[in-house]
Amino acid sequence: MTVDKNALEVFVLVAQTRNFRIAAERLGVTRSAISQTLRRLEEQLNISLMHRTTRSINLTEAGKQLYDEVAPAIEQLNCAVTDIAEQIAEPRGQLRLAVSSIAERIIGGKLLADFISAYPHIELEITITDDEFDIVEQGYDAGVRLGEVIAQDMIAIPVSTLQRQVVVASPGYITQYGAPQHPNELINHRCIGWRKSPGIAPYRWEFAEQGRDFDVNVSPQLTTNDMGVMIRTVCAGGGVSFGMAESFQPFIDRGELVSLLDDWLPTFPGFYLYFSGRKHLAPKVRAFIDHVRM
After folding, report:
1. Residue 200 pLDDT exceeds 90
2. For residue 30, which of 69, 112, 257, 268 sits 20 to 30 Å off, Cα-Cα?
3. What span, in angstroms and rounded, lies between the C-alpha atoms of 91 and 154?
């Protein structure tokens, strides 16, 4: 049997107020409309739900049973609708992001600090990972990584300027061992590389010469999946390293590192915020998109 949900809501409100006039005022209808709605409901159920007199309204046994079972469900439905309406009015809820460890603009601190300040009702959860996986399947709202590894069925929005790789070493290392003049000379230097996890080949050192891309098969003496460890070791004179310019730039600016082989390192498209191509974006995702869009 299909029962009119509006009739059930009218019944619950009358049962709570025990007053047709108050129920009518809250719903913005006439007392006659309330009475007719309840009468149709009783006829549909073929049972009396209320004892009505000129002075009072009392539930029958069947009415009490119906109220006890229906009222919580009506309240839950109304709360759900209210929650959705509030989310539309103001972004809220948990926002889960999977972010590459080298997306410096995103994880640098200021952008995230500004976001949580601007949206106090969003709980932001950032997972730093360089693993490639289906963010939707793993329960993430969005991800940030280089465009070349993003699945084609995702919507991707650029969130950084053009990027480039750099080769760096400390002034002390260069004084002691000299600076390579061509990428191929890197095989004669002590190299410090990055790999995202054990058992996976270290990150390739890629270059370009006269429009032709090539990589140098360096054999890092030290590899790590922690950019901080790599940078600190290079700054301490441990060797030559290779990575995103954004990660090394503060140390280059302070003179702790020197950029090498710049002529062989062109720019390329940078980082993208990507998410599932659903028709309707959650307000919390839309808020983050607007916040990080370049």
Report:
1. no
2. 69
3. 22
